[in-house]
């Protein structure tokens, strides 16, 4: 029985040019060696190819096939005096034209750019092949596919925040809206906004303001809590507020939330006389964005 023994094994990055010997030992004193030349072996060359995807490719693995519209063409270097009718007449020789748009610089001069919407991809291709580098009214125009026309999406409509407003009277003339909000909020985050009302001509504080809460419950709790409290050296009076629309040019102390009677369906009621402020002691009902709520007993 022959015994296979590895005599020499090299571990290098490149093949060694030395021969590797294997000996078959027998029980007899005789031995026979086999010499193998490594250069006689052909090893296949392996290569590793790596591909790194960009962030955009990872986010959008499928690229839109129609990056450019197949029916919308862009014509460049058109004469500045060309009209949409001129461009339409030129392109109608090669198919149905649905729409022509000229990028205008002035009313009587365009920017040399025209967008043409053809009736079908075949008609657009025919117009492209025939009008590319075509001389039109002394100018060589360039025609290519244009990107699809983007439809303008209207901005999302923000829902109106429903607020419950408190009318605060007998304010210090030094009080600001920030001071008023911090006093009523006390770090709770329940106050939506606060406002101090000023008179016009000349501009001076009127001595009252408004504080808005998110819920009726919070507003009622604040009404009971802050009634008669001392704020910047003066005891304040708190009541339920009601909105009314400020009249332009009126010199009276008015705000979008100044207390005033409103008629049904948003019709304006009679406003205080010019130059006079609404009585600070007049109670009013709790309102929700200008609509009267049920009176709280």
Automatic annotation (TrEMBL):
SUPFAM superfamilies: RNA-binding domain, RBD (SSF54928). It comes from the Eukaryota. InterPro entries: Euk_RNA-bind_prot, Nucleotide-bd_a/b_plait_sf, RBD_domain_sf, RRM_dom. CDD domains: RRM_SF (cd00590). GO terms for molecular function: mRNA binding. Pfam families: RRM_1. Residues 245-297 are annotated as: Disordered. Residues 71-148, 164-243 form the RRM domain. This is RRM domain-containing protein. GO terms for cellular component: cytoplasm; nucleus; ribonucleoprotein complex. Keywords: RNA-binding. The gene is LOC100806480.
